[in-house]
Automatic annotation (TrEMBL):
Name under which the protein is recorded: Zn(2)-C6 fungal-type domain-containing protein
UniProt-listed InterPro entries: AtrR-like, XnlR_reg_dom, Zn2-C6_fun-type_DNA-bd_sf, Zn2Cys6_DnaBD
Pfam family, one: Zn_clus
Organism lineage: Eukaryota, Fungi, Dikarya, Ascomycota, Pezizomycotina
Alphabetized PANTHER family for the sequence: MISCELLANEOUS ZN(II)2CYS6 TRANSCRIPTION FACTOR (EUROFUNG)-RELATED, TRANSCRIPTION FACTOR PDR1
Organism: Glutinoglossum americanum
GO molecular function, one term: DNA binding
Biased composition range(s): Basic and acidic residues: 130-140
This protein's UniProt keywords: Coiled coil, Metal-binding, Nucleus
Gene Ontology terms: biological process: DNA-templated transcription
Length: 808
């Protein structure tokens, strides 16, 4: 029989492929090697040092039959062990004679003796290690059948070079061969990885890496702007199954429920909470107007005509008698959010909002097992309220409740048929929760709760809700264009899922960044003309929130490459892109800070008074926590690169917001520290090398250091109770404790009253940025800082201009 080796004696592959094959085959046990089946007997192989017959064809190696006692092969197997390599054929005959296997009449024929003697001589020669095994066979402890003209079958099967290195043999015989094989495999793998990394870096540096934009778009799974979610195929109904449905509803009780919304609502458990008093009508009207002009503009989860009708009926009765408790919970959560967006000095903000949200919670039945859409609305508004109070962990929990309720009542699936208003509001509530899930996840660096593959709901109707009736959608001719921003917000936040997946990588490659930028531009094109970058039209401040969602996504994407895992040039490019997003933000913000034209269309709810045209008032009325943090991030990067004029615009907007949002105070305190650190670097003449300053790079990265996956400064830091004990020791307990209505928080999340006032306020930051702007432009000295007289203003002795040294 013949053993075929189709890979034997092939041309060796290129070095890279050879290394890869070597790594893959190194993990295979030597017992499974094909060379184990190749017989070393017979005259098919010659010694590397001696002569002999020519080798057989490499693909057809003959295997003689198994030896039997008394045969020549049997004698060779045992008799040749005593043969000296110097004895030659004579020694062979002498050693065989005592056993009766030598010459004479009982010996072998001359031809067989000659062939057998040659085989025995070669075997004895190799067994005495005069011709050592190759490096690979010696390492794997297998027999080596190499000749002076061909590689051994072991090296041929593994596609490695068959070589003989005495130093290697001596070294391998002195250490553990198994451990040595593992070390060599790891070295090969490491060398291959380094070669690939260097190759990719050279391609990136030379700009030779070009990826097809459509292929990259598909690999990132970016959704098309304006597209609906993928609809699932529903099984067809072959006949009337009403009888089957009735039987299942009856006999499935206690086992499973029909899917929502096809199951009958059960009898809710007895829940009779103490009904709270309604707030004064004028206060409620004011808070509803604030809610309508802020949250309802971006996330319209209420059908306003129906909600107002129910609101009028409740105040006509004068109490919540006759309405479900869940409607009262929804009503007080609307009032709580309206408190946060009110700029009326008569509103005790945020204390009144906390009382309202607590009332909303008291009207929620914890034992309820039959949820409605109002439960989902109330939980969502509670999450929004807690976010604006900077209680983001609590907001994250309430968001989860809202999503779970939505899944429980089937908002994530397209069902029906529904009345027009109810079907539209189911879609709007679902997409409102979807938008908030994306916004809060990107803000906190958390995983998404909603999977796009689980979403089977069409996009909401892009018209005002007071045009939607059960008879249909009726838009009067000549009506002004809609300003419903839910659709544009959906298109922006749908890219958060691939963005968060991309942020899991240590660094983001330039082709991926380019693909995202193209998608950002497509999303930006879906906004109204006044929202476009480069437009000179007045921008309604109500559009700032959704358009800033997009700019924040750009900044978060590029900020990821600030990590120490990236090369210096990659980090520098990341700062440049973040500054570009910040400057685009300023361009939009500056147009919203202009005086509106008289002909601008102002949408208002019925009975709403005309709002003030001052941009400060409008900005304060729509400013959210996410808008405040975005302005803070932009200011950090603009100051880092020396764009003090643009940074001054962001700081002026933050100053207009003031203490309307608790997070804005914390942002101002952090920015004050950052500016003092920056001025100190400038004073030392280190302003031109900030990209290589690890301290300043950590400061400018901002809340990137709040991410468990992407931060780097906490590596090796203290954990557990150690930082908590240190914080408690540094701050008295009485300073940290607050009442429940005052917002009890952990020591590390919110500064104390003394810490919140030790940075000088936004006026100090505005003055410092103005001074840096004048110093950068080489202008004359700027006025004294707030709280300091002009005579006490520090001036340089050699110049009338204020200097960096005196600014600090």
């Amino acid at each position: 029989m013949a053993l075929h080796h189709p890979q034997s004696f092939q041309q060796p592959p290129p070095p890279q492929a050879q290394s890869a094959h070597s790594y893959e085959s190194s993990s295979v046990s030597s017992n499974a090697s094909p060379s184990r089946n190749t017989s070393m007997q017979g005259g098919g192989m010659s010694s590397r040092t001696g002569g002999g017959p020519a080798p057989l064809h490499p693909h057809h190696i003959s295997i003689p039959p198994a030896p039997t006692p008394g045969s020549s092969s049997y004698a060779q197997s045992y008799g040749s062990r005593s043969v000296s390599p110097k004895s030659g054929l004579g020694g062979l005959h002498d050693s065989m004679a005592p056993n009766g296997l030598g010459g004479g009449k009982h010996g072998l024929p001359p031809t067989q003796l000659s062939a057998g003697g040659l085989q025995a001589q070669k075997r004895a020669y190799r067994q005495r290690r005069k011709d050592p095994s190759c490096d690979a066979c010696r390492e794997r402890k297998v027999k080596c059948d190499a000749t002076d003209t061909a590689s051994c079958s072991e090296c041929s099967s593994r596609n490695v070079k068959c070589q003989f290195t005495k130093e290697t043999n001596r070294r391998m015989s002195s250490i553990n061969l198994t451990g040595a094989r593992q070390v060599q495999d790891l070295e090969k793998q490491l060398a291959q990885a380094r070669q690939q990394i260097n190759h990719l870096r050279s391609l990136m540096k030379d700009g030779a890496m070009e990826v097809d934009s459509e292929a990259a778009h598909q690999s990132l799974n970016l959704p098309e702007v304006g597209s609906n979610s993928r609809r699932r195929q529903r099984p067809p109904v072959a006949q009337d199954l009403s009888r089957v449905r009735a039987n299942l509803r009856n006999y499935s009780q206690g086992i499973f429920k029909p899917p929502p919304p096809y199951h009958r609502l059960g009898v809710p458990p007895s829940f009779s909470p103490v009904l709270p008093d309604l707030p004064p009508r004028e206060v409620a009207d004011h808070l509803l107007r604030q809610y309508y002009s802020s949250i309802h503009t971006v996330i319209p989860i209420l059908h306003w005509p129906n909600f107002q009708h129910e609101y009028e009926a409740v105040y006509k009765v004068g109490s919540l008698q006759g309405v479900p408790p869940v409607w009262g919970s929804l009503f007080f959560s609307v009032l709580a959010v309206g408190v946060l967006y009110s700029v009326d000095p008569s509103i005790n903000r945020p204390h009144d909002g906390k009382k309202y949200i607590e009332t909303s919670r008291m009207l929620t039945d914890l034992w309820n097992d039959e949820f409605t859409i109002d439960h989902a609305r109330s939980a969502l508004l509670t999450s929004i309220f807690l976010t604006e109070l900077n209680l983001k962990s609590a907001a994250w929990v309430w968001l989860g409740s809202s999503i779970n309720i939505s899944h429980n009542i089937g908002l994530h699936c397209e069902t029906g048929p529904w009345p027009v208003v109810e079907g539209e509001m189911r879609r709007r509530v679902w997409w409102g929760i979807y938008v908030w899930d994306r916004l809060l996840a990107i803000e906190l660096g958390r995983p998404l709760r909603i999977d796009d593959d689980d979403c089977d709901v069409g996009l909401p109707c892009p018209v005002e809700d007071h045009f939607i009736y059960d008879t249909g959608v009726l838009v009067p001719s000549g009506s002004p264009p809609t300003s419903n921003l839910l659709i544009t917000s959906i298109h922006v936040v749908r890219l958060m899922a691939p963005l968060l997946r991309t942020l899991k990588a240590p660094a983001i490659a330039p082709p991926t960044l380019k693909t995202f930028e193209s998608h950002f531009a497509a999303c930006m094109a879906s906004f109204p003309p006044s929202c476009q970058i480069g437009s000179d039209q007045y921008l309604d401040p109500r559009y700032l929130s959704p358009v800033f969602y997009l700019q924040k996504a750009r900044l978060v994407l590029h900020r990821h490459n600030l990590s120490t895992a990236c090369a210096p040039d990659v980090r520098t490019a990341a700062v440049d892109h973040c500054v570009s997003a910040a400057r685009d933000t300023v361009q939009l913000l500056s147009r919203a800070m202009q005086a509106p034209p008289e002909s601008s269309y102002e949408r208002s709810s019925p009975g709403q008074a005309h709002a003030s045209n001052r941009w400060e008032t409008k900005l304060g009325a729509i400013a959210s926590t996410m808008l405040c943090t975005h302005l803070w991030r932009c200011t950090l990067f603009l100051c880092f690169r020396g764009y003090y004029s643009e940074a001054l615009a962001c700081a002026s907007a933050s100053a207009a917001i003031g203490d309307l949002r608790p997070v804005n105070i914390s942002c101002g305190r952090n920015l004050s520290f950052f500016l003092r650190a920056l001025v100190e670097k400038l004073r030392r003449g280190e302003g031109s090398n900030l990209d290589k300053d690890e301290e300043m790079m950590a400061y400018v990265s901002g809340d990137l250091q709040g991410s468990t996956e992407n931060s780097w400064i906490w590596n090796g830091s203290e954990t557990g109770m150690t930082p908590n004990n240190t914080e408690q020791a540094a701050s008295p307990k009485s300073e940290r404790q607050e009442s429940r209505t005052g917002g009890s928080v952990s020591p590390s999340t919110v500064p104390t009253h003394e810490e919140a006032s030790d940075w000088g306020g936004w006026e100090q930051i505005v003055w410092l940025l103005q001074a840096l702007q004048h110093e950068h432009q080489g202008q004359s000295a700027y006025g004294a800082p707030p709280g300091q007289s002009a005579s006490a203003q520090p001036l340089s002795q050699s110049s009338s201009r204020i200097s960096i040294a005196n600014i600090i």
